[in-house]
Specification:
With 301 residues, this protein is mainly alpha-helical. The chain folds into two domains: 235 residues, Hypothetical protein, domain 2 (Endonuclease III, domain 1, Orthogonal Bundle); 56 residues, no CATH class. The protein is 52% helix and 2% strand. Strand 1 and strand 2 form a beta hairpin. Helix 1 crosses helix 11, helix 5 crosses helix 6 and helix 13 packs across helix 15.
Length: 301
């Protein structure tokens, strides 16, 4: 249930943007494999896991490889966890591979191998949060829900709220998206996808292509003279030299180990900073992405 008691972040008049978004999307949407009618709910679910904080261009090849190898939840659930982590490769945030494996097992155990369509059921799957649950329900099953990602929030901030960038994520984003969705489920699904696509291709964070935007004549930000209202999103820490980079380096050595177990001497070469390397190993063990053996460290069995 969307509560409308507070609407401050989008206090300006809500413009009608659904029709131009729909027309623009019909002409300009990218032909992505998970958008095709024959993709199926499992393919959509895998795409949503992979697309979390990851650009589309980096996801296309791994998504195809994943579906070729594990075309259904049953096939992934029956595979070793290490295979899932290994095939995840360099997509980043490798815990998603663990969650996807656990989700496949849960779908088999509780839903007969069929990806559920109800948001409440989807939220019970490992690694599935509110955004992912709504996205799967909408894009796999045509259910009617507002779906808001970073790109959508930017479009809403500019076209509806008259801001140069979004504020920090909040439940008000869902209210704003609900306000612009058509009442019919099919139309709403298209507008959800179109808003994301517009934010990804045209209404980008830097140097937006306003002259190519279907909302140019009704954009509140343009009408206000393009004011710089700042960007309220939290900033991610630098990657170079970070614990995240050290963790990725250690995991890469484990993933590439032909014999499975990496001895301590070889692990020492994964990252030069001993303290940082030890933190990386500890975090991988804590997350279930690695396990110790008599001979060293390996991917989970």
């Amino acid at each position: 249930m969307l509560h409308r008691t507070h609407h401050a972040p989008y206090s300006g008049p809500v413009t009608t943007i659904a029709a131009p978004l729909t027309a623009w999307y019909a002409a300009h949407a990218r032909d992505l494999p998970w958008r095709r009618p024959d993709c199926g709910a499992w393919g959509v679910l895998v795409s949503e896991f992979m697309l979390q904080q990851t650009p589309v261009t980096r996801v296309l090849r791994p998504w195809r490889e994943w579906l070729d190898r594990w075309p259904a939840p049953e096939s992934l659930a029956a595979a070793p966890v290490a295979d899932a982590v290994r095939l995840w490769g360099t997509l980043g945030y490798p815990r998603r591979a663990l969650w996807l494996h656990r989700t496949a097992a849960r779908i088999v155990e509780r839903h007969g191998g069929v990806v559920p369509r109800d948001v409440a059921d989807l939220l019970e799957l490992p690694g599935v949060g509110p955004y992912t649950a709504r996205a799967i329900a909408v894009f796999a099953y045509g259910e009617r829900h507002p779906v808001v990602d970073t790109n959508t929030r930017r479009v809403l901030a500019r076209a509806v709220a008259g801001r140069s960038g979004p504020r920090a994520p909040s439940p008000h984003d869902l209210v704003a998206m609900e306000d612009v969705l058509p009442r019919d489920a099919a139309g709403a699904a298209i507008v959800n996808a179109a808003a994301m696509e517009l934010g990804a291709l045209v209404c980008v964070a830097r140097a937006p292509r306003c002259g190519d935007c279907p909302l140019e004549d009704r954009c509140a930000w343009r009408a206000a003279g393009y004011p710089d209202t700042g960007d309220g999103r939290p900033r991610q820490a630098r990657y170079e030299g970070s614990d995240r980079q050290a963790r990725g380096a250690v995991l890469r050595v484990l993933r590439d180990a032909a014999g499975g177990t990496v001895p301590p001497a070889r692990l020492a070469g994964a990252w030069p900073d001993i303290v940082q390397r030890d933190r990386a190993v500890a975090s991988l063990l804590a997350d279930g992405l690695a396990e110790t053996t008599a001979g060293g460290l390996r991917l989970p069995g």
